[in-house]
Amino acid sequence: MATVEKAQNDVTSKEVASAQQPVAAADTSQEEVPIVDLSPFMEDPTSPAARAEIEKVARGLMDFGCLVIKDPRVDETHNDTFVDMLEEYFAISDGKRDARPEISYQVGVTPELAEVPRNHCTKAAGLAEGHRPVSLCPPEPDLKMRFFW
Fold first, then answer.
1. Which of 22, 25, 50, 88 yields a CA-CA distance of 20 to 30 A from 78?
2. Model confidence at 31, in pLDDT bands (50, 70, 90)?
3. Is 56 within 8 Å of 69 (Cβ atoms)?
4. Would the pTM count as exceeding 0.85?
5. Residue 136 domain flag
6. At residue 109, what are phi and psi to the nearest 5 degrees?
7. What pLDDT band is residue 29 in, cutting at 50, 70 and 90?
């Protein structure tokens, strides 16, 4: 545990300063969501290989808002079974049977068009041109159906 704490505390002032610099929008059109392997970090969190995986995490979250985690403790067949089960569920779900609107859709299915993002159009209009969101103003209802456990 001390090794992990040391790795977390080994941040130089140069790294902090660079992290505070504005980040230009990345051209992610030709890139793929990064796959982060936990093995190097589990073996030695201070190693260069672990540092490279941590940088993938940061890049994935900044550029895509997501990433894929590869954990050596997880059997890939379990993952495949899980994904197959979700695909089957969404193929047969009408998006209503398992919906729980009475608890704000925090468990079960949230149907398409049930959620509307907050309207921050006035706030966004005050931002500089390069910093404005590209989402529609006013926001439209979300087209995706999702499932919360």
1. 50
2. confident
3. no
4. no
5. yes
6. -85, 140
7. low
